[in-house]
Each structure stands twice: as structure tokens, then as C-alpha cells.
């Protein structure tokens, strides 16, 4: 399969292209320069704590909403035994509908795999490429632990992070500036490039 089909440069053509084509694995003539995984243990522990707190707050709010009915009142009426399981099921369902997507996305971010080739930046989840950005012409920013790409030819089949504008992110990696230097060698434009950037890695790493 050809690596990275070109899409139109017009802004109006970019949105359909980002939705309608599935990102492809590295193709013929596409060399893997670097690959790695996010180091998410500390963040996962914080996100787990936040997730449990969210569940507790949602459960408390739901119970407070139905407490007048369970206690009985002139407004809510008297509770009927057959309705109690239904009420509790609705509460559990509401909590899961709100909280489960948060947990699934957090888990996916921790399981993501990043790859930089001589043509593209790729994000893998399981055995599928879920995002790609063409390096040539891409705008790139990097800090100590994250590299962000914004490219005219970019496909995001699933956003792993809801922060600001769409970006392809290599987050929580140890050698982010070196990876950015490598991407710059293959056509990415480093917007916040330091005066003395680190040397690019010599070969692919795990």
C-alpha cells in the first residue's frame, strides 16, 4: 500500500480527507527512523485517582437527585418496590456513560505506540495506525517530553487528547527534542527550535 496519499491543499478539502481515509502502515521505500511508547505510569495513577473521584461525585449527585423519591414526599410520591432496581440501574448507567469514555481514552493513550519514518509521524494503537502526519511541510513544536505536529497532510482517525486544536502528538517520551531534530532533518519545520538542539538519534529505538 502506498505510504501517505496526497490530499488537496485547500482548507476545505482537508477536513473530509482527515475523516475518510484510514492512515496506512509504512510502505515501500519508507524507513523507520525511531519508535517508542509513552511513559505514562505516574500520569495513569493521577488519572485513575481523578477517574475514581469523578465516579464518586457522579454517584453522589445521582443519589441526591433520587433521594426525595426513595425517602418519599408529597412532591416525589411514595417509592414503589419494583421501581427501585430500575432507578439504581439508571443511576449506574448514567455514571458509566459519562465516565467510561474518559477511562477508555486514558487507557488508549497509555497503550499508544509512536513511530517516525523518513516521511511521516505515526501513532499506532494495537495493530492499527490511528493517526499520521506528513513530515514535509509540517509545523512542529517540542518540549522536554512531547513533540506536536500540525501538517497539511494529516489524518486523525481518533483523537487521543482533547486539548486545543488538532495535533498529532508524541507525548510523554524521554527523548522528545532528539526526535524533533530527526523529524526536522526530514522536512518538518521546528517552530520553537532551541539554539542548540540535541543530535538526532542514529537509529530506530524501542
TrEMBL record:
Keywords, comma-separated and alphabetical: Membrane, Transmembrane, Transmembrane helix
Source organism (scientific name): Sandaracinobacter neustonicus
Domain of life, per lineage: Bacteria
Record protein name field: Uncharacterized protein
Location of the region described as Disordered in the Swiss-Prot/TrEMBL record: 187-206
Transmembrane segments: 45-63, 83-104
Feature: compositional bias, Basic and acidic residues: 187-196
